[in-house]
Structure formats: C-alpha cells, structure tokens
Fold:
Amino acid sequence: MSDSVLRDLDDGVLTVTLNRPEKKNAFDDPQWDGLTQSLLEAREDRAVAVVVVTGAGRDFSAGQDLTAFMATPKPRDDGHPNGYQACMEALYTFDKPLLAAARGVGVGIGCTFLFHCDVVYVGHSVRLRLPFVNLGLVPEAASSYMLQVAIGTQRAAELFFTAEWIDAERALEMGIAARSFPDDELLPATLAKAREIAQYPVSALQATKKTLLAARQAGIRAADLAERDGMAAQAGSPENAEAIRAFIEKRAPDFRQFRS
Structure:
C-alpha cells in the first residue's frame, strides 16, 4: 500500500485518507492504486462496515496530477490502461456504504468522486469545480450521468458548461452535499455518522447498497463509455494542449484561435 493513501480501521469504520497534501492530494498512479486497493479489500473484509474517504491537510483533492498525466504511462498487469480506470471500476461497483468528508479544494475527480459517495459532508471551506471544458476535455467518472441524477439536467449542464466554482452553501443547496460543518468539525461529524451506520449488520448494509447500485448501473456504464470516447477524441487536441500549456505557464488559455 502506497503511503499516499492511509487506512485506519476502527470498530467497523475504515477511514481512507488521500495523503499527498503537498500536491493538494492530486492523483498519480500510486495514489490511484492505493485507493483501488483500499476499496477492493474493504469490499471483501467483513470487519469493514462503512468506508469514509477524506483528504490530508487542507484539501480533499485537486484532481489528476497533470505532471503525472503527461508522463509516459508504465505497463500494467491488471488489464486496465491506467490507475484511474482501475479505480473507477472498483468505485462503480463498491457495495458498502461510502461516505466522504471533503474540505478545501475538490477539483475534477476530487469533485466527481463525491457523486459516487452515498453521503457527502463538506467543510465550510470546500470549493468544488468540474474543469473539463476549460481544459478542452469532457466529463469523467460517469459524472455526466451521476450529476444529472443528483441535481437535475439544467443545473448539471450549467456546472459542466461554465466550470464555475461551487462553494459549501451551493453544494448543500443543490444536493451535492448532505450537510456542511466548520472544517475542524467535519471529520469528527462524518465519523460519528459512519459509526451510527456501522452498528447495523454488514450483510444488510451491503444488500441495501446493492439495491441503490442496481438502479443506476446502466446509466453509469453508458456514461462511462461515452466519456471515454469523448476523452479519447479531446485528449491531446490543440485545445487541450493549449489548456495544459496555459496551466503550466499560469495564464488564461486562448481558445479563440481555434474558432476559424
């Protein structure tokens, strides 16, 4: 297990902490693999009733580490092209209650991951963003389906097309989060709810989660395939390259040059 993902099991509650605070917990392959392993092992471990995912430091996750994203991928032996896809497969089928405690920045997968959590609590400092169009890309993690289900088509479209920031008040009002807390109370409150859930039979919790998953699996799979096609078409495009250059150079991208 990579030290970029920490695990602590206490009385049925497994706390999984994304642990790259110096990078705002942005994902590289070791962190993807650590989260995947945590979900797969938690699914099979009868001692785990509930999983809570949080981030070390002041942030949940800044999303994909762009430096790692641009590096040449290393060959894998698990049948997945990269750590992200392996993690998504584990996430889409995770059949125990999954809670999130998110504060600070939640960008890209740091936001879309939350849509797959059964209960999301946010700190007052949380700032979420879906930065796909501004990177010349399309949504990921089946978020094009999951967000519509959670908040409605028009609201989801507005967030995807504008890539605007979502604060704690708006996340709560839209239904992206269930409750918000002062940052220092966030994790204790989330763990308290997790312990409340963990008192019940693991078999009943799993059976209940499976009913929730059954109702949305077809939509998740369809969105995932559409997003993969869209990402394959857009990743590496001139617009995407300009967005990444602009990010590295700390300037606004110029997409008007591609309109003629």
In short: The beta strands are 5-10, 13-18, 50-55, 98-102, 105-107, 119-123, 127-129, 166-167, 179-181.
